[in-house]
């Protein structure tokens, strides 16, 4: 017999960024972060997990190619999920798996990203969130989403935020063992439905520096990082929570752009000329821009402008990912 579960998890885009770890192994951050989770159809990972007594080892395929599961991050997630597995019964198929059986059974995992892997669009976020979620379903793990988020966090920090839709906060936590470093939902998908998120995929090449080594370098060499984590981000987190609660786009845009370390002149010029912000931009660890428009009308104008700068068939492959509505 084979028992199969499939799950789909969207990626998330941080508006107040996680940058820097205080514990590399457990993946504990130096500051809280806030993100928005995209609609599940757009940038997402789909993962199918299967268990069968005929499998003689754990194996995984990513976008159709077998990859090694021996890395510490995969192993941590697998171990944490297995240790919480409970009895599973499928009467129709005549399958009965006891809690203890899970220690001996092996899983096969097939995962697909519908967007460029490791190009700085948080593929590891969707990937590890889906990995943990689908295994937890297969193994009948009875934990709430926040507890699962603390497991996904050990795969990739940003993954903990993809366990929820809408606006999500990753609370950095205080415990040394990481038990209180987990994600909570600030507002659900419906709360600020006007917002439109456009992802300008200007390069699908693998990013040159991984988030992990970039963060390590910043922690080791940047005097400003301590200041950012201790002084700047805590204030921004409070202001961002307030902006989200009140759907206050002016504050949201100002904070999002301030927390992103690059400048896109179209957006800056436009916001200046309108007198009040219309669009926010943010970059993760790759070259691809994420643009958040205050409503669909602005999103349509924005798309026109972007198409002017990046016409179809140019090097840039411009994609728009829109909350609930693909029609702009
Ligand atoms: C810039 O979660 O990819 O996207 O924890 O080492 O796997 P690891 O890093 P990762 O870093 C994401 C960094 C970021 C900001 C963010 O998503 O908050």
Automatic annotation (TrEMBL):
Alphabetically ordered keywords of this record: ATP-binding, Lipid biosynthesis, Lipid metabolism, Lyase, Nucleotide-binding, Steroid biosynthesis, Steroid metabolism, Sterol biosynthesis, Sterol metabolism
UniProt GO BP: isopentenyl diphosphate biosynthetic process, mevalonate pathway; sterol biosynthetic process
Residue ranges occupied by any Mvd1 C-terminal domain in the UniProt entry: 197-263
GO CC term (a single one): cytosol
Reactions it catalyzes: (R)-5-diphosphomevalonate + ATP = isopentenyl diphosphate + ADP + phosphate + CO2
Enzyme class (EC, first level): lyase
GO MF terms held by the record: ATP binding; diphosphomevalonate decarboxylase activity
Superkingdom: Eukaryota
Domain Diphosphomevalonate decarboxylase-like N-terminal: 10-183
Enzyme Commission number(s) from the entry: 4.1.1.33
Function: Performs the first committed step in the biosynthesis of isoprene-containing compounds such as sterols and terpenoids.
Family: Belongs to the diphosphomevalonate decarboxylase family.
Protein name: Diphosphomevalonate decarboxylase
Protein species of origin: Morus notabilis
